[in-house]
Design a protein that fits this description.
With about 350 residues, this protein is of the alpha/beta class. Helix content is about 30%, strand content about 25%. The chain is built from 11 helices and 20 strands.
């Protein structure tokens, strides 16, 4: 089931853990309805921000959020460099020298934890920490490669292949990590979403027992939240859209599918699902009806809400246990715009 009748996604939650890019803002500007919705939530629960973007410090992120109209301190922001430091502490000795590929967000956290920082493989680093920054190019990636060929530990802040920016979708840290991976023939230990470390930092800091994780990416935000045992909500204001929702494997299937953050406060529609004697599954959400027989998924009634139609289609596919590549899915479902 993708929710409960009459309950909102925030019912019973003690914290709201939000991704940033694609959820709160895209580039420098806020996403429509995000700021007022977050401020409303903050009146009744702790709101934390969890970001895989390692290019800025927690204070720089908080300053940006304050400029958008949110009441945020650095302590409300959990970054992938903070998670990377937690992972790194299990791999090297205190005070070790770390080669950094990335921005100030990594350097600040490493120095605060007592590590020394270098940008050169010639300084015989004890480990490499790699994260995203817009200025990272061949020279920085080459230094990482030189150092890693000695066999030292390698920690990457995150695996995001792309990042949403004001002009569109750009390569993310996963793309840069892949370049080094191909050069050195091994993979790093990852710290950010979808790994557990970043969620452990967040739940400890906010004393959260029953948080809701909200993100725009199935492969990082939703998978990570589910791995950590938390309820998850995908908001369709960033990277992933209808086609990706329908194709999500069990490890990435959200508990809630939202058009924007206003829907955090709205009763989530009930999902009615029944299977007849011929094995046909009928799923109804609001006025939308989707039927699935064996591998064929069809819209029986579109209704007047594309988001409910997407929820019905997702519920039918998820209940089948089948993967999208083996299904014949109605084109109407695959190309839903879902604009709130």
């Amino acid at each position: 089931m993708l929710g409960k009748a009459r309950a909102t996604p925030l019912t019973g939650r003690d914290a709201l853990l939000l991704d940033l890019d694609g959820v709160v803002y895209t580039g420098p500007g806020a996403i429509e309805h995000a700021v007022e919705s977050i401020n409303r939530a903050a009146r009744s629960m702790r709101v934390g921000y969890i970001t895989n973007n390692a290019s800025r410090t927690d204070e720089q992120v908080a300053e940006h959020l304050r400029e958008l109209g949110l009441d945020v301190s650095a302590n409300d922001v959990v970054t992938s460099p903070q998670a990377a430091v937690r992972v790194l502490a299990t791999l090297v000795a205190p005070g070790a020298r770390i080669l950094v590929v990335g921005g100030d967000g990594i350097v600040t956290e490493l120095e605060a934890a007592g590590f020394s920082v270098t940008r050169s493989a010639d300084d015989a680093p004890d480990a490499v920490v790699q994260g995203f920054a817009p200025h990272v190019g061949w020279e920085q990636l080459a230094e990482a490669s030189f150092a890693l060929h000695t066999g030292i530990p390698w920690v990457a802040t995150n695996t995001d292949w792309t990042i949403p920016v004001a002009r569109g979708i750009a390569p993310g840290n996963g793309t840069l990590v892949s370049a080094v991976h191909l050069a050195v023939g091994r993979l790093p230990v990852f710290a950010g979403k979808p790994e557990a470390a970043i969620f452990e930092v967040a739940t400890e800091r906010f004393a959260a027992q029953n948080p809701l994780v909200v993100g725009d990416r199935l492969d990082t935000d939703i998978m990570g939240g589910k791995r950590a045992g938390h309820a998850t909500a995908l908001v369709l204001t960033g990277i992933d859209r209808a086609k990706q929702v329908l194709a999500a494997p069990p490890t990435m299937q959200p508990d809630y599918i939202l058009g924007d953050l206003r829907e955090l406060f709205e009763p989530y529609p009930a999902v009615a699902s029944e299977v007849d004697a011929d094995g046909v599954r009928t799923v109804t959400v609001g006025k939308s009806v989707v039927r699935m027989k064996q591998h064929v998924v069809r819209v029986a009634r579109a209704g007047n809400d594309e988001l409910d139609l997407l929820r019905a289609g997702a519920a039918a596919i998820y209940a089948s246990g089948l993967q999208i590549y083996g299904l014949d899915v109605d084109e109407q479902l695959m190309h839903l715009a879902v604009v709130s």
